[in-house]
Amino acid sequence: MSSDDAGRWLPIRLAGRWRVHLRTHLIVFIIVVVTEAIGKRTIPLGPGQIVLLPMLFAVVIGIGISYSVLGQYVAPLRRFVSEDVSVLSAPLLTVALLPLGVKYGTLVGPSFADLISAGPAFVLQEFGNLGTIFIALPFALLLGLKREAIGSAVSIAREPTLGIITDKYGIESPEGRGVLGTYLVGTVLGTIFFGVLGGFAPATGLNPLALSMACGIGSASMMTACSASLATAVDSVPKEQLLSFAATSNLLTGITGLYMVLVIGLPLVNWLYDRLEPVIGGER
Amino acid sequence: MATRTHPLETREFTACALLMLVVVGVITLVGNRIGYDGGIVAAAPGMALIIVIGLASLLLARFAPIELPAFAYAMIIAFCLSLPYSPVQETVVGLTKPINFLATTTPILAYAGLSVALQVQRMREVSWKLILVACLVFLGTFFGSAIVAQIVLSAQGII
Asked: Which of A48, A51, A205, A223 could covalently link to A250 via disulfide, CB atoms 3.0 to 4.6 Å apart?
């Protein structure tokens, strides 16, 4: 157990804190009741559809009513949905993920044979995560970014990448600012982004099984939003199979992601930067 | 707020974590009833099993020498229990069946949304250029994996 991990759990203690607990869980209870009553909505859009699941409404409402969004303007709301509530919600997120983890396990276990036969695809698609470098780095350079581009484009920047870049360049460096940017955007907007993307992606013509593997990007909540929307949008493949493929791919990314960035991603992005920057970097 | 800097003792951690799991379990059961017509009584035994596995996962994440998140432990334990070779496969799969997968996701994202508020201010300071690049990173990592998976799965004749 690392030392910051120990401090992370402090908010869940009960002694003298039952009011914060009561408020926090009551707020979540109300959000769940309201969003489940709204239910799932699908909006046709061009060749595909936008799938809006209760979880997507829940994350939008949660951010919206918090002390740093609507609470900034509405004092009574800020007193009820206080900063304390957000602080307690952080470790509760880890707890709330566990029932989902168990559900995923019970979906994956029985279909173990399918997973083994798709083994080569699971392993190789991990390298597909590097695809982001070839797309995002040139774009970042065209926008006029310099070394920030390295940190921002190297990967989807979940905690392992954040650790590597911070370790190597320092968090105050341009590279550090870049990786922190992608990390923060992912934390705040990632689930919404991938929830919409997962529902719309079948319109590209890619096979749902391939798309379900792609949903496993190394963040449990983003993968969940992505694969649940995908499974809702697709009828041709059993839901359970899509969900279990996504969960397995996510577990794999969780294990390999750090090495992928450290051994391949970071050298590759630096190599590409040195080639591209003189050409499209511009003067600034 | 009381200021305490030393970490929770194991006993206090276990007790608090168990209570938090029960709270999340109750919220999930109500969501499961409203959104997916799952009976609360029918789903309660499955939730009890989930809470037991959940507590084991939190303790493993705290003490096991392998550094994996609790979510990964929960998934791996449930996975092993529901393998075709497992003697308890039918029990585990049967007990958790009345709990809809989506019902477990809504409380997660409610807590996630609330906790994200802690980062919102910092995100407002991120330049619009980095926000655009981040969106492209999301698309790149997603379609990069999807295209490789598509090629390999078709080469294997699976799709």
From this structure: A223
* ipTM exceeds 0.85: yes
**Contact check, Cβ <8 Å, A135/B81:** no
Q: Which of residues 5-44 of B touch A (CB under 8 A)?
A: 5, 7-8, 12-13, 16-17, 19-21, 23-25, 27-28, 30-31, 34-36
Closest listed residue to residue B140, CA positions, set A265, A234, A160 = A265
Alpha-carbon torsion (A67, A73, A76, A79), positive or negative = positive
Q: Does the CB of A191 have a partner CB in chain B at under 8 Å? A: yes
Cα separation, B36 vs B33, in Å, equals 6
Angle of helix A83-108 relative to helix B40-63, nearest 10 degrees? 100
**Torsions phi, psi of A218, nearest 5?**
100, 5
Q: What is the pLDDT of residues A168-211, one digit of tens each?
A: 999 899 999 999 999 999 999 999 999 999 999 999 999 999 99
Q: Does B120 touch chain A (CB under 8 A)?
A: yes
Report the C-alpha gap between B112 and A177 in whole angstroms.
23
Reading chain B (159 residues) residue by residue, the pLDDT tens digits are 444 556 788 999 999 999 999 999 999 999 999 999 999 999 999 999 999 999 999 999 999 998 889 999 999 999 999 999 999 999 999 999 999 999 999 999 999 999 999 999 999 999 999 999 999 999 999 999 999 999 999 999 998
B84 reaches A (C-beta below 8 A): yes
Minimal Cβ distance to A228: which of B35, B105, B126: B105
Count the Cβ atoms, other than its own, within 10 Å of residue B157.
7
